[in-house]
Structures are given as C-alpha cells and as structure tokens.
Structure prediction request, 376 residues.
Amino acid sequence: MTDQQEIIDAIALTRCCFFHPTGLIALYRQLGSAHAIMSHRNHIREVLPEASPRWEETFRDMSDAMRCAEAEYAWAEAHQVAILSMSDDRYPQRLRDCPDAPLVLYYKGTASLNQAKVINMVGTRHCTPYGTDLIRKFIIELRQACPQVLIVSGLAYGIDICAHQQALQQGYETVGVLAHGLDTLYPSLHRPVAEKMLAQGGLLTEYTTATKIDKLHFVRRNRIVAGMCDATILVESGSKGGGLITCSIAQDYHRDVFAFPGAVGAPYSAGCNNLIRDNGAALITGAEDFIQAMGWTDDEERQAARQQGIERQLFPELTPEEELIVTALRSHNDLPVNVLTVRTGIPIPRLSALLFTLEMKGVIRSLAGGLQHLIG
Prediction:
C-alpha cells in the first residue's frame, strides 16, 4: 500500500460516511488505517459486531466514492493542497484525539498546525467597536508576552476576520477553518486577507471541492476550530450563535474556554455574560488574565520575550497620509469625514480611499453617522 492509496481510501470513506464521523473514526482506530477498513468493508460486522444493516450497506459499493476520491487527489496535487490523513504527522495532534475528528483534512499554507500554543478566537458576525478593540489589545499584549502562538478562527464576518487581521498585523501566524472546499472562498470579500494568510498561516477544511455552501457545514467546522486548539476565547456573542456552539464543543473536548464580559443589556455581550454566569467560561479582561490561567507565565518563550523587550508598533506599515489620519483621531476620536479633511488637509475623495484602507487594516472603524473611530 502506498501513501497515495491510503489517502484516496480515506477520502472515499469520508465521502461515504460523512454523516457518521464518530463511527468511522472508531472503525479507523480499531483497524489502524483507511486501507484496512477498505479491505474489511464487506465483512464490517466481523470487526464491528454492533454495526447496523444500514452501516453495512454504506460500504457495499464504493466505486463512485473511489472515482471522486481519485479526482480530488489529482486536484489537490495540481493546486499544491496538502491532504492530511490521520497518520500524517502534519495532522493536528490535538484534533486527532477527538472522537468525531475528520479522517481527512485539506490544507494550504505555511504554518505548522501542531505548534506549542494554539488558540481560537470566536464570536458574533456583528462585531462592535468594543469587540474590535478587545481583540486588538489582546493580540498585541499576547504577542509581547508569547511571541509564538497560532491564532485560529473561521474567516467569517465580525470577530473571526478581525482576529485574523490583527494576528497578521502583529506577526502571528493565523489559520482559517473553512466550511467549504479550497476551490472557493466564502465570504469572497475576505479573499485579500485569506491570501495573506496563505503566506502567514493557512486555510484548512474537511470539505472537498464543489461543496455547496450550507448552514450545517458551518456548525460542523466548529468542532475542528475547537478541537485543534488549547483554548477557545469568546469575544462577543448574542444569546445564541456559532461562537457559543464552539465553546460548548470545546467543553466537551475538555479544553479551556474563556470569555470577555460586556455591558449588561448589550445584545452582543449577552452570550459571553451568560456563559461566564453559568461557569461555562472563565472571565478574562486581557492577555495577562489568559496567560495566567493557561499557565504560560514561566515558560522559556515568555522569559525570552521579556528579555528582548518585544514590542510591536501600534499601527504597523502606515503611509505618511495614513499616519496623518491616525494622529488626528488620536487627539480627538470619532470624527466625521468633513472634520478629518480639515485637520489632515487631505481632499475628501483621497481621504475616503485612505479610510477604506485603514479599515481593512483594522486600524479604524466607521460608526453610525459616518464617524471614524480609531481602534484602541
């Protein structure tokens, strides 16, 4: 058996057993490889006596699944996509221990998925300036204390994309876990960030090419986000939402869960406050709280960071015109465009373009009424 055949067998099995990941992983762990499962597929009850007739029927005819698997393997090779089976050392080791881990993952990027410290930051798709500020300050503080941390999220609107952007700006590697194949990107608006992540992190998914965008897939991908990390951090969330689902899964996996508190009555702090109230998450107000709780206070990396005095620029890679805007907002935040153009001397058409660029960099945010808010 070649590694190629093992991977193709694993892809085919995943295709047939997509809605039964726990059973497939139990079978894999019992037999030791995807190829062994394929070899026993006509005698499943000899290996798994409790297998139902429907489960047996799943393995009867694998011809279509094998054809699709071979095509998927060829596509991945042509597009420099790594296919990670559970026997691959590059497969996330933390995730491998989970009972419903994917048998196969598709990965494109440069970051190791098995770094010493891996966390995820999740929350609402309706991120407020409060949430944006929390993420930015947290990642800056964390970077100063712990230079090597992999930041994971789901590349969705709101908290997810903000976490990725801030990680990139502060020099962290960051990985986005997708709810579709690597042949597309949703939302497409985040493609510029995703392209940067390929060189400073990566994109990871369990889904094959031509996978349709489906709500269920976003829920399923949350188990990967939770399972591949040491800790889950909920930044902002309504009383219901995907971030809370990720926290629940992380609890089931016996991983640490943290949440930032918010104002009483604030709609996108309700989920965090309720989770803290119900002892589902530890309260944190900044990176130092998190570092203490995780026991990352005395490791060699942290001591080295202190000795070197690692500091990041507050707003890295700004042009002189962008610096003018930031300086104006530092002296008086939340200014309308007409006031900013007077204070900076930049014409409104040019100013509007610069403000858009600064928002994409995560430096400012547009508020209601056209006010420009400096984050942090």
User: Anything to note?
Assistant: The first helix runs from residue 3 to 16. Residues 309-315 have pLDDT under 50 and may be disordered. The radius of gyration is 23 Å.
